[in-house]
Design goal:
Helices cover 81% and strands 0% of the residues. It is mostly helical and 115 residues long.
Length: 115
């Protein structure tokens, strides 16, 4: 029952989009609604941003941003690993020192049983 309701909704959406595409074709547009929306978005871009030089600069900036972000991620991973290793080494040293102190504490003659 529920799937038939979903199918009916999808058919209604298809019919609606078909009608919208037909209306766009009547207005002289050859293509789908998605293409019309893309054309509208393209028209909203300022003209100076559409030149070949501007597009080249946009690509250079995008490439630089991708490289910088990658370097930052690598740096964070490397420094995170170094800090984790340092913390591990400090933990091991503290355990070793604690074991030595505990050993020396119980070796103290004051704790020996008196006969």
């Amino acid at each position: 029952m529920d799937s038939q309701h979903e199918i009916a909704q999808l058919k209604a959406q298809v019919d609606q989009l078909t009608a919208e595409n037909a209306a766009l074709r009547e207005e002289g547009f050859r293509g789908s609604k998605a293409e019309a929306l893309m054309a509208l978005e393209y028209d909203r871009i300022p003209t100076f941003m559409k030149s070949q030089q501007a597009i080249a600069w946009q690509r250079k900036i995008a490439t630089a941003v991708m490289i910088v972000v990658t370097l930052i991620l690598v740096a964070v991973a490397v420094f995170g690993g170094l800090y984790a290793y340092r913390d591990h080494q400090q933990l091991e040293e503290m355990r070793r020192l604690q074991a030595n102190v505990e050993h020396d504490f119980w070796k103290d003659p004051a704790f020996k049983a008196k006969k």
